[in-house]
Amino acid sequence: QAPDSFPPLRNEAAVRVLQGRMKGIQGHCNSCYMDAALFSLFSCTSVVDSMLFKPFPLCERNVQSILRDEIVTPLRKTGFVHAGSMMHLREQLTEKGQCSSFTNAEKDPEEFLTLIMQQILGIEPLLRLQSGGQEQDCYCYQIFMDKQEDLVVPDVQQLVEHSFLSSELKLVEIPSCFIIQMPRFGKEYKMFSKIIPSLELDITDLLLDSPRECCVCGDVATLECS
């Protein structure tokens, strides 16, 4: 029997289902990196729903069914995922990833996403980046940047542009899904106390060989100044 599927939450439904006490994904044993990543990927968007249903060539069915039936479905249906369901997934990741610390240690979200998307489900990379003439494929982009004194409360658009500029990066093509990890911080140091979500992201200036308007004459630009 095919499992029930629930669409991502939108507008008033998102507020009704996700707002209040005992909502979201319950944290336990340093699971925050995974909780935040899965909530971002599945609660209100369907852009990576193929992870839940598509029979990929390398797909590990058990991990896929746990992700779909024990995490995403209850999150969209009731707005709450119990820590036990997350631990079930973490135990499977520990087994498949041959890393014993997935059940108790804090990990980098990129490590988690690469394991589940590449090694377990066999999904093609979502991003193609170019730096110094060399192309690289990846599943998400982590913002790296030096402290900017003029950015006190930045938005995501500013952070992505600053990060790409400082790292001399370009997008080779428009990504089907652009997963962005905000600057890391720990208990002792936070680069920004707040980051404003950009509801839309303009990647025109981040694209390689994208035709753009000259800011002086209005014709198609032939030179780019960083």
UniProtKB/TrEMBL annotation:
Q: Name one GO biological process term.
A: protein deubiquitination
Drop me one GO molecular function for this one.
cysteine-type deubiquitinase activity
Name a single GO cellular component.
Answer: spindle
Keywords for this entry? Cytoplasm, Hydrolase, Microtubule
Primary localization class, coarse: cytoplasm
Cross-referenced Pfam families: UCH (PF00443)
**UniProt subcellular location:** Cytoplasm, Cytoskeleton, Spindle
Q: Where does the Peptidase C19 ubiquitin carboxyl-terminal hydrolase domain lie?
A: 24-203
- The protein's name in its UniProt record: CYLD hydrolase
**What does the record give as the organism's lineage?**
Eukaryota, Metazoa, Chordata, Craniata, Vertebrata
